[in-house]
C-alpha cells in the first residue's frame, strides 16, 4: 500500500516524499517513463539499489524453446520473452571516492515527482557521505513523446557544506544483472545476458553500444551524447568495453558550486537492418536530440500532453485519490501507446517484464477502448500491428484445422506462445475482441481507410474462424464448443456466452464491412452467400440461459455446476489458482473475473435491463476477482444496475491497483488493463457511455452519417454519481467529435467541443448536441436496489 | 508385420527362422525374458547390432524434474524413468580376431526360439568370418522364474571347417549407449548414463559391478560367475573397470571342437541397503544359482510353467496364429507378474522402456483380471504394491483437496508423474479400477486375509475419494464432474459413465467390506453412517442416457457433440492425437478407445441386453482404436451382442498387436494390456465369462459360500464360436476352483478340475458343476444381427 506510506495525493502528479527501499521495485514501475517505443523503468539514476533494472524497446525479445513434459499436437514450440536492453539511464556519482548509494551514508532528503502534464520524472536528494560531506542532487528524466528514439536526462550535483571531489559516470550498460525470477508462474521468465556484443565506441562526450540477441537475431543500438557544465578544472574522458560505454566527468566543487550534465540517449533496433545502418540510425536520432536541445524536448513533451489532456481529461470531485489515480492511469496509457507505431501494447506496457512482456486480449478489450475515446490517433497503429501478424494467425488456424485467422493468446511477435492450451489456444474470444476493437475504432473515428483496409481483413478472417469453429445442432442452433471465455476459472466449455455474443458481433460486423466494400470483399473471395451465411449464423448463435434461475449462463450448464465452497476458503488461499487444481476450479461455480458481466458491458443490447440486474446479482457472489481485469467491469455493471456505491468501491479498486499495489506485483510492471479500467469504471460505468447496437449502422458509409443525419445512432450516456462524489467531468472523443460531459448530483451537462451535431441518449431521452448549445439534462434518482454480496472475504479492495 | 516375414506359426513357441535387422528392435521385445523382478530384452548375445539394449530391474528408476512452460498448482514436479541397468547378458565373441557381428562376414543360418513351456530363449547360428572361417554358435538364455535374482546363459561355440582361434568375452556392462529417443511423445524419455560407479571387482571367473543412481539413490549390484569347458589350452582372465567387468576366455579350436561356458548372473537393488549388504546379496544369489546349476535352473523353469499352463492354458482350433498368440500372450503376462512381488507391472512389463517404464490402470483393469483367473498367486503381491503406495495416494488426495486416496495415473514409485492433468490427474477412474481389481481377486480366490487387510484399506480410501469428488444436485442425483474416462479423446467431462458405474461398484464393495470386517472398519473410523452414505450415494449416481437416441451417453452431453468428420480424415492422420489438437478431439464425438463399451464389460449388470446392443451399435462407428486397449473390449462386447465375426476380427487384432507390430511401436516393449486382451477377448468375449453383480454377495464371509451353498452367485458363461473356429477350450481359476471349459460349435462342456461344486450360468441356464460329472450344455444359435460399421479406414487390423 505504497500510497499510504510515502506518496502524496495530488491531482496532477505522483510525488514520493521519502524513499522506502521496501517499495523500491513498485516505485520503479509507477515512475516508469515510456513513449510506447522505448521504456525506462523508474530506476534510480545511479542504478543501485534497484528492484528490477529495466530498459525496453517495444518488440525486442529473445526466443527460447518451450518445455513440455508431455507435448501435444499444436503446442507452440518457441517462447518469447521481452529482454532488458542496454540501459542508457545510468549516471553513477562518486563524492570524495564514496559511491553515491542510498544504503550508505545519510540520506537527508529524497523526493521524486512524476508530473502528468510535463511528462518529466524529477528527483531531488540531499546526501551526506560516510565521511561527512553533503551534496545536493537534482535530476530530470524524460522519454520523448515527440522524438520516439530519444530519451534524455538533466543531472546536477551541488556541493553543500564544503568542498567535494566529484566524479560522475554516465554510462550505457548492457546485460545488467537481474534479480532471480519469482516462483509465481505468472511472472516473467528472466533471460540472463541476452545481448551479444557487436560494437562498442567512445569518443569525446559520445558513447555507443551495438548488440544482437542470440536466437531472435534482433540488433539493438544505443548512442549517447552529453553537455557538460562545471567549474574550471572540470574534465571528462570516454571509454568503452563490449558491455559498457562510459563518460567520466570529474570536478572539484566548492560549496554552492554545481556540476551539471545533460545526457541525450538515442535507441534503435531491427531484425533486418545491418550494423552500419543501425549505427547511423542512432547517431541520427542523437543529432536530432542535440538539435532539439533539452528545453526543446521539454516543450515537445508538454505539447503532446496538453493535447492529450484536452481530449481525455477526467475530473473527479469528492475523492482526491481517484482524481490522482485516473490521471496517473491515463498518463501511463498514453505513454504506452503514444509512439508504439505498429507494435503491440504489452499487458505491462514498457514498465516491467511481467507476463514476459507479452500482449494479450487486454490490449484490444481494455486499453484500446479507452484510447479510442481519448487518443484515437494511437489506436490505428496498434490495430495495424495486429494486422501485420495476420500471416501467423492464418497459419495457426490452419494448424488447428480451422478456417480464417486464429490470433495468439499471448505473443510479442505474432506467434502463439501460450503453453497451456485450455487457457490459451481455446481462448478464441481474443479474435472477436480484435474484431470489436477494429470496429469500435472505426465507429469512434469514421476512419474509412482503415475500415476498408486492415479493418476489413481483420473482420473477415475472424468471421471465418467463428464459422468454422462452431457447428449447428439438429435444431439449427449454432454452438461454439470447447472454448474458454474471459473467466480463467472455467475452461473448455460449450457456448461461453461472452464468446458467443462477441462472435455474433464479429460476424455481423464482417457482413456489414463487406457490404460497404464489395471490391475489397471480392479480393478476399467473400461472396454474397458467405456474407449471408455470417448473418444467418449470427442469428442462430446459442445463448445459454437458465429458465430455472432466470439468469443467463456463463456457459452451457454453468449454473448446474457445484458451487465453490467460499465459506471454507481462507483469505490466504487467494488467488485460488495458486492453491487449488485447475480441474476443481473448472468444474465449480467460481468466477475469476468478469465474463458474463463483461459481455453485458461489451454487448449491452443483448440483454434487457431486468436481465442485467438479475445476471449481475447472480454472478457477483461467485466472482473472486483474482484478475485485475475484473473490478472495472463489475464497476460498470454495478453502476448500470443501480448499485452506485458498489460501483464506486470497484472503481477505487481498479484505480488504485498499482498505486496501492493491491495485487502485490506492481514490481513486475503496471497493470495496463486495470489502468484502463479506471477510465472504464468512471466513463462507461458512472457516465454510462455505451455504443448502441442495432439502432443504426455501426459504420457509416463514407459521406453519410455526417452532421446530425437521421442514419446516425445516438451515443448513449446514463450518468449517476455515487454518494461519495459531487462531480465527475470528462472529455471524450466519439464519432469524430470532441465532447465534454459534466455530471453533477442532479444534472449532467453535455458540451460539444468540436465537430458536427451529435445525437445523445441520456437515460432514455434523446438530445441533439449542437456546438452552440450545451444540453443540461436532469439525472433521475437511482432505483432502489439490494446490493449483492461478494464471496466471503472478497469485498472490493482499497 | 514380423510374423509374415520371419516368424513361424507354431502352437507352443515363437521361432524366428532368419534374421531381419529391420525388425531387430521388435524381436528384442517379443523375445524378452523376465520374471517380473528382472527383465532382459532379447538382445543378441554379442550386444550388437541392437535396436534397444535393455536390462531392467522392476522399480529401478531415475527421477528428474518435470518441465512446464506454464506450471500450475498440483502439477507433479518430479518425473520417474525406468533405466537400463547393468547388462549381464553380453557375451562377445572373436574368431581369429574378427568380432562376431552379423553385419559383417556371412551369416549361413540363424534361428531363435522362445519356448513357452521351457521358458528358455534358444539361439543357433552359423557364421563365416570375413577371412573365411566358419563357426557354429548355440546359446540358451533364461531369467529364472524360481530364483528371482538369477538369470543364466549357456553359450557354446564350435569350429566347423578348420582351426579357429576363439576369444569369448563375457561381460557386465553399465551405462550402455542407447539410441536417441523417438519424437513421439508417448515414447519414453531416455536417460543417458544413469549409473554412477561405486565398486568393480573381477577375480577368477567372477565379476561384480555396483552402481548407484544419481538422484533416486538406488543402488544396483550385479555379479556373475562362469563354468568354462574347452579343449586343452583353454585359458581365461578376469578384469574390471568402473563400467565394465569382463571374463575373457581364449581357446584354439580344431574343427569339431567346442568352447562352452555357463554364465550365472545375479542381480540386486535397493534404495536402503548399504554397498556391503547389496554386494553380499548378489554374491549369495550367485552361490544359490551355482548350487542349483544350469540343469536345475532349466528344471525349475519348466516346473513353474507346467503349473501355469495347467491353470490357464487356452486352446484355439481353427486359427493357428491366434493359438500361438494367446500362448505368447499368457507366457509374457506370467513372466511380467511371476516374481514382481510388491512391485508394479508396468505397461510394457520389463520388455522395454516405452511409457518410461510406468504402470497405469492397465495393470488393474487388463492384466490382473487375466492373472486372477490364470495365476492368482501373482495377483495379491501386485495389489500389495498398490497398497504400499497408499501414503502417496493419501497425500495426493489431500493436495487436490479431496478425501481418501487418489492413486497416480502413471508411476513407478507411487508418486504421480503424469504431467498433463486432463489425461492424468482427473482420470480418477484408476482408483475404482484398483478397487475393482482387489474385489475381483477376493471374489476369485476367497483370500479373506487380503480382503480384511490391504483390500479393505484400498476399498475404503477409494470410496472416500468418490464421496468427496462428486456432489448431489438439487434433485439428489450424484454427479462426478470434471473427470476423464478411459477414452482419451474426451476429457474433463461431467458424469463419465464408466467412471460413475465403477465408482458405484467401488462404493458398494467398500460398504460390503466394512460390514464383513467391522473391527478393521473401526480402525479406519468408518462408522455405520459413512457406510450407509456410500450405499445411498451409489444408488443416486447419475447415469447419462439420451432419451432421444435411446443410448447411454459416454458422458453427459456426449451425444449432443458435433460428430467427428471421419470421411474427411485421411488414413495417415491416425493416431488422431498426433494430427489434431486436443480441444478439437475433446469437443467432438470421436472415441479413442472403448469407454462406455468397457463399462458394459466391467459392470455388465448395469445394462440390459437391449441397451448393450444399442450402445455397441452407437459407439462402434465412433471408435477409432488409437489405443491398444480398445480391441479386446470391443471383441468382448461384439461377442456379447451377437456380432461373432466382428468379435473374432477384434480378437485377432488384440492377439497380434505385438507379433504383427500393428501399432509400429513393439520396439519400445510389449503391450501388456493388449496381450491380456487376447485372453479377455477369448474367455470373456467368446466364452462369455462374467461375474454377476447383485445376485449374491461379492465376497463371501469366511466359512460361508463353501461347496454349493445357496448363498453363492453362479459364475456366468455365454460361449459361442465365430465361423472361423471349430473349438475353443480354456482352463480357468474362479471362486477358488479350477475349471475347464471346452466349447464346440454346438455344445460347451464344463469340467470342475479342482474344488467344491460350483453353480454356473450358461446362456441363462444354471448348472451346478460337480467334480464327478462334467456338464455338457447346448450352445444356442446367435441372434440375427446387423454388424455396425467402423469409422472409415478403421476396420479391425491383422
UniProtKB/TrEMBL annotation, chains A, B:
<feature type="domain" description="Glycoside hydrolase family 65 N-terminal">
    <location>
        <begin position="16"/>
        <end position="270"/>
    </location>
</feature>
<dbReference type="Pfam" id="PF03633">
    <property type="entry name" value="Glyco_hydro_65C"/>
</dbReference>
<dbReference type="Pfam" id="PF03636">
    <property type="entry name" value="Glyco_hydro_65N"/>
</dbReference>
<dbReference type="InterPro" id="IPR005195">
    <property type="entry name" value="Glyco_hydro_65_M"/>
</dbReference>
<feature type="domain" description="Glycoside hydrolase family 65 central catalytic">
    <location>
        <begin position="327"/>
        <end position="679"/>
    </location>
</feature>
<feature type="compositionally biased region" description="Pro residues">
    <location>
        <begin position="777"/>
        <end position="791"/>
    </location>
</feature>
<dbReference type="GO" id="GO:0016787">
    <property type="term" value="F:hydrolase activity"/>
</dbReference>
<protein>
    <submittedName>
        <fullName>Glycoside hydrolase family 65 protein</fullName>
    </submittedName>
</protein>
<dbReference type="InterPro" id="IPR037018">
    <property type="entry name" value="GH65_N"/>
</dbReference>
<dbReference type="InterPro" id="IPR008928">
    <property type="entry name" value="6-hairpin_glycosidase_sf"/>
</dbReference>
<keyword id="KW-0378">Hydrolase</keyword>
<dbReference type="InterPro" id="IPR011013">
    <property type="entry name" value="Gal_mutarotase_sf_dom"/>
</dbReference>
<comment type="similarity">
    <text>Belongs to the glycosyl hydrolase 65 family.</text>
</comment>
<dbReference type="Pfam" id="PF03632">
    <property type="entry name" value="Glyco_hydro_65m"/>
</dbReference>
<feature type="region of interest" description="Disordered">
    <location>
        <begin position="771"/>
        <end position="798"/>
    </location>
</feature>
<dbReference type="InterPro" id="IPR005194">
    <property type="entry name" value="Glyco_hydro_65_C"/>
</dbReference>
<dbReference type="InterPro" id="IPR012341">
    <property type="entry name" value="6hp_glycosidase-like_sf"/>
</dbReference>
<dbReference type="InterPro" id="IPR005196">
    <property type="entry name" value="Glyco_hydro_65_N"/>
</dbReference>
<feature type="domain" description="Glycoside hydrolase family 65 C-terminal">
    <location>
        <begin position="715"/>
        <end position="768"/>
    </location>
</feature>
<keyword id="KW-0326">Glycosidase</keyword>
<dbReference type="InterPro" id="IPR017045">
    <property type="entry name" value="Malt_Pase/Glycosyl_Hdrlase"/>
</dbReference>
